From TrEMBL:
Organism per entry: Caldimonas caldifontis
Protein name listed in UniProt: Crp/Fnr family transcriptional regulator
InterPro entries: cNMP-bd_dom (IPR000595), cNMP-bd_dom_sf (IPR018490), Env_Response_Regulators (IPR050397), HTH_CRP (IPR012318), RmlC-like_jellyroll (IPR014710), WH-like_DNA-bd_sf (IPR036388), WH_DNA-bd_sf (IPR036390)
Keyword Nucleus tagged: no
Sequence ranges assigned to domain HTH crp-type in this UniProt record: 153-226
Lineage: Bacteria, Pseudomonadati, Pseudomonadota, Betaproteobacteria, Burkholderiales
Amino acid sequence: MAEDPRPDTYRALLERGRWFASLPAAHRDALLAHAVLRRLPAGAMLFRRGDDNAGLYCVLEGAVRIGAAAVGDREAMLSVLESPQWFGEIACLDGGPRTHDAQALSSAAVLLVPRPALERLAAQDPLWWRFLGQLLAEKVRALFAGLEDLTQLGAAARIARRLLGLSQGHGMLAEGLAHRTVPVNQEQLGAMLSLSRQTVSEVLRDFEARGWVRRHYRAVELLDWQALAQAVTNGRAGPSEG
């Protein structure tokens, strides 16, 4: 059985992400020197809300769902992370427990920079706290944009914006990069946006008829980014509410 490659084998992939690529070369080297590779089968839990902080993670392969079980076990899904998105920085900054669940949607590989190693790096160089703060700030920007969408955009425009956001890693991918296919189904999109599955289905059907997307089993393929972006700008795209 072949051994897993060393974490630094993934350097080129990681540099496709804005946050990692923005770090000074020595800091990128330090992260990779302390990182360990973990593989997860589909459906495996990486951590649960309330768990102790194990460290900082990055998706290398597959997809990781971020969410939690809500009232009545209804899924509360916040996002889907693909490579090369980093996550887990909140608990690293405040020393608290995990705020949400992280589960592999498909077989996945992630990098883990263990908490003790990260704390040693920060003790040696306080700039690490700034870097982690920048990572968190990117998430907060996306969160504020999502909250604004809830009050200002109709259902179709919100779905278009979320598809674009997921494909671009919510701004965490390097400029000009995007995932063509987003690994979410209609129910999961609805859970992210507080929309019914029926509404999401109607909107995606309309998008598909316009040639903007193509629906797959548990995935949506983006065909026309410009049209989806224009739908967000206009605040409407086909049916506005379900």
